Amino acid sequence: MASSEGLDETRDRLQKHFAEASNDHNASKWSALWTQEFTPWDRGLPNPALFETLTQHEELFDDSVFADDSQNHRRKRALVPGCGKGYDVMLLASFGYDAYGLEIASGAIEGAKKLSVDEAEKYPAINEEVGRGKTEFIQGDFFSNEWESQIEGGASFDIIYDYTFLCALDPPLRPAWAERMSQLLGNKPDSSLICLEFPTYKDPAIGGPPHGLPAKVYVGHLSNPGKPLDYDDKGDLSNEALLTEPAKNALVVVKRWKPVRTHDVGEDTDWVSVWRHRA
């Protein structure tokens, strides 16, 4: 694990880099970091907590291949926004999902496409009868619908996985983040948004990215997608936001736990939560 001094230096560099807001959801700023090969969030492998979720909590998810209304068998679709080099995308494909990685930075997409070829053998099918799903990497803005035409079968996903995506966004984008998650998540009984909550340990007043994300941020915004919520001058979400009735387009948590294994940076502080549309 990096020393505390090294972590402080990384944090300071990121905060200075993102100090001035941009009008492109920071696309140019993220692209610059990939060009500079300064990617401290890249751990070189999928998060072990996602593997644990898919194997130790399999009761939450039906098979990754199903028969549609016409009795045609197709693979379920998974989306990883802010996918980086795509390690988690490739892991989801190994479980049989057609997995899509979305990135705003061209450097990330280039790296992901290369890695998916160079390291494909590291991600064999978990179940040989089900086989591997495909992996596709798309450059696009999560908050725009322009990229959706590139999704075979339509941009409705059976699994969406968020790790180091919400924490990378400027806090004013959180209502739109929750609204897009509600829009993009499919309506099957097991359609699930998997959030690996990180960094829960960080004081929101410090700023980011990564921005501190206590659990109530997920609860508040996913209960009220698209609705601006009140924060104090230290970046802390008002507790009153948690007392409102969930909106019709809300996502509700069905299970939450502390993973046994995760990346070192989130050890003992990461949480996994699974969210679905209201019944």
SSE inventory with pairings:
Elements (H helix, E strand, L loop, with lengths): L3 H14 L9 H9 L12 H9 L8 E3 L5 E3 L1 E5 L5 H8 L3 E6 L2 H13 L16 E5 L19 E4 L11 H11 L7 E6 L17 H9 L27 E7 L13 E7 L2
Parallel strand pairs: 3-4, 3-6, 4-5, 6-7
Antiparallel strand pairs: 1-2, 7-9, 8-9
Describe the fold and architecture.
The chain is an alpha/beta fold and 279 residues long. 26% of the residues lie in helices and 16% in strands. It is built from 7 helices and 9 strands, in the order H-H-H-E-E-E-H-E-H-E-E-H-E-H-E-E. The chain has helices spanning 4-17, 27-35, 48-56, 87-94, 106-118, 174-184, 215-223, and strands at residues 65-67, 73-75, 77-81, 98-103, 135-139, 159-162, 192-197, 251-257, 271-277. The strands form 2 sheets. The chain has a 7-stranded mixed sheet, sandwiched between helices. Strand 4, helix 5 and strand 5 (135-139) form a beta-alpha-beta unit. The model has no long low-confidence stretch (mean pLDDT 92).
Tag the structure with descriptive keywords.
single chain; 7 helices; globular; 16% strand; 279 residues; two-stranded antiparallel ribbon; 26% helix; alpha/beta; seven-stranded mixed beta sheet
Number of strands: 9
Largest sheet, order of strands side by side?
5-4-3-6-7-9-8
Our measurement of the CA-to-CA distance between the termini, rounded to an integer number of angstroms, reads 42 Å
Largest sheet: 7 strands, mixed
Number of helices: 7
Which percent bin holds the helix content? 25-40%
Q: Overall mean pLDDT score? A: 92
Radius of gyration: 18 Å
**Structural class given helices, strands, pairing?**
alpha/beta
Indicate the low-confidence ranges by residue numbers.
none
Question: What is the strand content?
Answer: 15-25%
**Which descriptor suits the 3D outline?**
globular
Q: What's the order of the H and E elements? A: HHHEEEHEHEEHEHEE
